Amino acid sequence: MSLSSEEKLRADLAALRVERPAESAEKKGRARRRNPLVWLAVATPVALGIGAIALRATPVTVAPATLTDTAALGDAPVLTGSGYIVPGDKVVAIGARVPGRVERYLVDDGSIVKAGDALVQLDDREYRAALDRTRAQLEVARANLRLAESELARGTELANAHYLAASELDIRRNKVEVNRATIHELEAALAQAEVSLEYTILRAPTDGVVLAKLKEAGEIAVPGGFAGSGDLVRLANLHDLRAEVDVNESDLSQVRLHQRAQVTPDSDPNAHYAAEVVKLYPQVDRQKGTLKVEVRILEPDGKLLPDMSARVAFLPDVPAGGSANRQAILVPAAALRRENDGRSYVWVVDDGRARRSDVETAGLVGDRVRITRGLKGDEKLVVGTPPARDGVRVSVVP
Hints:
single chain; alpha+beta; conserved putative lor/sdh protein from methanococcus maripaludis s2 fold; Elongation Factor Tu (Ef-tu), domain 3; CATH 2.40.50.100; 24 strands; elongated
């Protein structure tokens, strides 16, 4: 076979050959691994991108902490909360002590009464009749006693003259003792009848205001009953008014007994009443995570009514040497963060990096928070989206 024929045959066989893709890719991969310039070309842009991301600063919005005199703050509250006005002695339910028909009410809803004032008049005719009957029986018993004493005196004379047997004299003495005992019994019954007649008028046990009349005139009133069914009038003492408010467990360190407070009713936001913390309930509400606190209003007036909603502000202690030379640190409320366990902290921007700083608070002053520990008063604080971690590089957004 000539050379040209061989070359032609090889060319025909090469045209018929099919190259497998996997084999081709494998060859190309081996070629890349053998060529380091290919890897350098791929790794260089990736490394540059990672470096750019690492050097890029997180944009944040900041606001300054301010240092001010406490004298300019006045009585800035350390804690505030919403609650309700309640009587100090709760609500007094006044019911009938003797059965009878309600003849008439002597007061109306909202009437202000003094201790001893008449509230309700029951039908007293039956009790007056019982009182008159007992008095008549007592008169009969006293008449019988006088007769028995006369008979005993005559019997004693006859017995001394030996005209009356000793046994007859003993009978006359016994009759005198029986009549005396009957008089004592009827005197007790008379006192009971007088008390029962007095109970037909229901009177106020203390000063207060009538909250509600629970029955109508003509209905039958009976003592006791289930769930207060025998009650006729509900009375509240408005001379001892208090406000109840629920305080979160994380804020209990700001409240203590005898602490100064201020109560502002929602019905009149311009009215402020001085108050004092008088009760911390002994058990926390597990579901709400709050403790009920009670403050007593020192000088209540007629504008305050039971169950009225109100705002309670707990005030700080007054320094012994005055507050004119003392300073307070205030930060925007948006800068304050809180952990799940209640601890507070802020993000401080220092030398282009965000640093976390734990702080202690002392209530709101307008739209700012008072800080008692953790800041100096000249820091810049993150108020927008917080940084991802402590120490991250940040840039301040104007």
